[in-house]
Amino acid sequence: MELRRPRGTQDILPKDALKWNYIEGLFKKVCKNFSYGEMRTPAFEYTELFKRGVGDTTDIVQKEMFTFDTKSNESITLKPEGTAPVVRSFIENKVYADVQPTKIFYITPCFRYERPQAGRLRAFHQFGIEVFGSDSPAIDAEVIALAMDFFDRLGLTDKLELRINSVGNINSRKNYNSILKDFLSKDLEKLCKTCQERYEKNPMRILDCKIESCNQITKNAPLMLNHLDEESRTHFESLKENLDSLNIKYTVDPLIVRGLDYYTKTAFEIVSKDIGSQSTVCGGGRYDGLINELGGPDISGVGFGLGIERLLLTLESLNLSPWQKDGLDVFIATLGEKASLEATKILHILRKNDISCDKDYLERSIKAQFKLANKRNSRFTIVIGENEIIENKVILKDMKNSTQTEIGIQNIVDEVIRLSSAK
Ligand code: ATP
Ligand code: MG
C-alpha cells in the first residue's frame, strides 16, 4: 500500500515553516504587548471535558470528535478546540487563586472529523486567547482589539470584517428562549432533525443551522438583540463604546450565535471577504457560565479562537507575504578539494557566530554553485580556490549590491557582520 497522509491533514514543509514561524512569532509578540501569558495543554483530554465544556448540542460534540478508548477503557478525545482544556487547566492548577484577571494565549493543533475542503481540515491549528475573572466590557474590547492589532500587522485591516452581537446574560436568554420557541412551534415538524433536538435543549442554536430549509423558517424569527435585559444591554453598549474609542470598525450582526448555555453577552466573528464559504477566520465571545460548569469558581471568561490555516489562505488569496524571503547569509563556492576543506572550516566558524551558511556537497561546477547560491537566496557568496588558500584571503561577493571585495580569511566573520548591518 502506498503510504499517504490521512485525509484532511497537511504537511508543513520547510518552505511553509517560514510563514508559520513568522505568524506564530508575530502572534506571540502581540500577546506579549497585551500582557497575555502562554498556556500549553495536552493534545488529548478525557472525552467528558468536551461533552461538558463544548456542549452536547454542538456539531463538534455530536459529529466531529476523534474519540477512542484506551486499553484501560478510558474515553479519550483529541482536542477539537482550545478553550475547554485551558479552562480545565485553570481550575485544576488553581490559577484562580493568583492575581486576577488571568490572561492566557495558546497555539494548538485541533482535530475535528469534518468533510475536508478548502479551509476545512481534520487536523488544523488555532491561535487563541482567554481572559478569566473580569466582567468588564473593556476586557471584551481588549480581546477583540488584540485580534485586530494582529490582523493589522499582517496588512489585513481593510480585508476583514468584524461582526459583533450580544447573546445576553442567562436571564435574558431564558426569557428569549421561550419567545423563540413560541415563534418556532408552528414549524417544528419542518425543522431538520438536529434542530428539533436543539428546540428542546438550546433553541437559539437553530438560528445557526446551515440547512436552507431551517434558514427559511428562522428568517423572521425574533432576535436576541431585541430582548436584552438592562444588564446585558448596558454591557453591549459599553463594548461598542470601547471599540469606538479604539477606532475599531464593526458591524452589528444579530444572527451571530455562540449557542451554548454558558456563552453570554458578547459574541463576535472576524470574517474574510476573500476566501469563499469557509470565511470565518476568528470567532469568540464571552462565556460567563463555563468555568463554573466545569467545576471551578463562579467567575467569567472571554476569548477567541483563530484558525491559522484560514489565516494563511486569506493572506495567500490577497497575495500578501509579510514574512521575509527565506535565505542564507553566506554561500561558499569552492574550486578544488583543498578549498572545499577550507570552506568546511569557515562554515563552522560562521555558524558558531550565528551566521547562516552552506556550501555545495554534490561536487557541482563553479558555475552551478553560483546558480545554487542564487537559488538559496544567499546574501553573500564567498569564493575560494587554491590561490586564495595560498594567499589566505577570499573573494566576498555582495549579492544585493553586486559588488565584491577581497578579505583575509580571519576577517570573514567581522566583514559579513559589518556588511549585513550596513545598508
Ligand atoms: P465553522 O463555522 O467554519 O465550522 P466553527 O464555529 O466550527 O467554524 P470555532 O469552533 O469557532 O469554529 O473555531 C475557531 C476558528 O477555527 C474558526 O473560525 C476557523 O478559523 C477555525 N476552524 C474551525 N474548524 C476548522 C477546520 N475544520 N479546519 C480549519 N480551520 C477550522
Ligand atoms: Mg465548525
UniProtKB/TrEMBL annotation:
Enzyme class: ligase
Catalytic activities: tRNA(His) + L-histidine + ATP = L-histidyl-tRNA(His) + AMP + diphosphate + H(+)
Domain Aminoacyl-transfer RNA synthetases class-II family profile: 23-315
EC number: 6.1.1.21
One GO MF term: histidine-tRNA ligase activity
Classification via PROSITE patterns: AA_TRNA_LIGASE_II
InterPro entries recorded: aa-tRNA-synth_II, aa-tRNA-synth_II/BPL/LPL, Anticodon-bd, Anticodon-bd_dom_sf, His-tRNA-ligase, HisRS-like_core, HisRS/HisZ, HisRS_anticodon
Domain of life, source organism: Bacteria
Subcellular location(s) per record: Cytoplasm
Keywords annotated in UniProt: Aminoacyl-tRNA synthetase, ATP-binding, Cytoplasm, Ligase, Nucleotide-binding, Protein biosynthesis
Record bears the keyword Nucleotide-binding: yes
NCBIfam families: hisS
UniProt record similarity statement: Belongs to the class-II aminoacyl-tRNA synthetase family.
Subunit structure: Homodimer.
PANTHER family in the record: HISTIDINE--TRNA LIGASE, MITOCHONDRIAL-RELATED (PTHR43707:SF1), HISTIDYL-TRNA SYNTHETASE (PTHR43707)
Protein name: Histidine--tRNA ligase
Biological source species: Acetoanaerobium pronyense
